[in-house]
Amino acid sequence: MSADTLGTSSAARPGRRWSRGQLARHLVTPAALAVVLLALYLWVSGQELDSIEARVLDAGAIGDATLRHLKLTAIASLLIVAIAMPLGILLTRPRARWITPVALAAANMGQAAPALGVLVIMAMLFSIGQTVAIAALVVTAILPVLRNTIIGIQQVDRSLVEAAFGMGLTPGQVLRKIELPLAVPVMLAGLRTTIVLSVGVATVATFVNAGGLGDIIVAGIKTTRTPILLTGAVLTTVVAFALDWLAGVLEHSVRPRGL
What we know:
Helix content is 78%, strand content 0%. By secondary structure, it is mostly helical. It has a single domain, classed as MetI-like fold. Keywords: Membrane, Transmembrane, Transmembrane helix, Transport.
């Protein structure tokens, strides 16, 4: 067998997590986002900024707003995972399935309600700040993870589950070794949706003094400065795409081989 044939066989062997084509496709998104950021920087640098625009678009201010936005999104997403995934698993157990429609209806109400309205109600009941903003994010973005956790486990082939029980596995072992690994792709797809939704909803956190890129967007609207408004909007979009890309890489990395 020739060296070229050996190299081809090695590159195409099914045990590899990432093929060259997959790596290339996954690198398209960060490359495109880098181009967008560079174009935004060059465009803003070429503008004659007044004192208000220069103050809002200061590198330190933009960096601080971006970090606050990422912090809000990260904390809310972690809380959603900690709440929705265990709850979704519980709702797939035989004794708790009757509660599933009620839980999904409540989560649907949270997502259907206007994010700003949820934020205002929570601010009136409690206070303003990051805690209220994170709570509002959890309420409005919990549905995708909860729903996909339930769907992911429910769609596992019942014959596999029955075979596992026939081999003597306990319900907990079946859940850990059969149901959860096979449900991972669907569950992580829900997480990706939640993360992107959280990035968008986090822009309204500015109205409860929680910071984030919403500060820049609102400043652009109030002052009718296009460079400010465009910068806030583009940065929010880039953050959403970047986090979705990272979640996609995670989804591919933990996906059971063969699926």
